[in-house]
Specification:
Layout: E1 2-8, E2 13-19, E3 25-31, H1 36-49, E4 54-59, H2 70-86, E5 89-94, H3 98-103, H4 111-126
Parallel strand pairs: 1-4, 4-5
Antiparallel strand pairs: 1-2, 2-3
Helix pairs in contact: 1-2
Length: about 130
């Protein structure tokens, strides 16, 4: 199964890829389209071309009490709209502290790709 990890941001969307069985998480690029609709269309194209079976979105819960916030709602809406285009199953993984952890990672991947990789790692750890 091919799983796409998404670190969703308004301006940049970091991607990571995982094929179950191999369990190696790889950086998979950035989506930097200017509008939300173009972002959705670009992701739908990637999902179709790469044979993605499942999508895991990072969910930014509040650090103090793990409550949802405005960003959480924005990401859930984006995930639902992507589902309408792709009909691909999606889940959410806690993304608290992924950016700070991503900053300490080595390698050539962008910060957003590293964050997406950590989102997939969190997903794998909880499965």
């Amino acid at each position: 199964m091919n799983i796409l990890g998404i670190d969703y941001g308004k301006n940049k969307i970091g991607l990571a890829w995982l094929q179950t069985g191999l369990d190696i998480i790889l950086p998979f690029g950035l989506v930097q389209e200017k509008t939300r609709q173009l972002q959705l269309e670009k992701l739908a194209k990637i999902i179709k071309e790469e044979g993605i079976d499942k999508i895991v979105f990072g969910l930014p819960l509040t650090l103090e009490d793990m409550s949802e916030n405005k960003n959480t709602e924005r990401i859930k809406n984006f995930a639902n709209d992507l589902y309408k285009l792709t009909k691909k199953e999606f889940q959410f993984a806690d993304e608290r502290l992924t950016t700070s952890e991503a900053r300490s990672m080595e390698g050539d991947a962008t910060l957003d790709e590293k964050s997406a990789m950590l989102i997939l790692k969190t997903y794998l750890d909880t499965e």
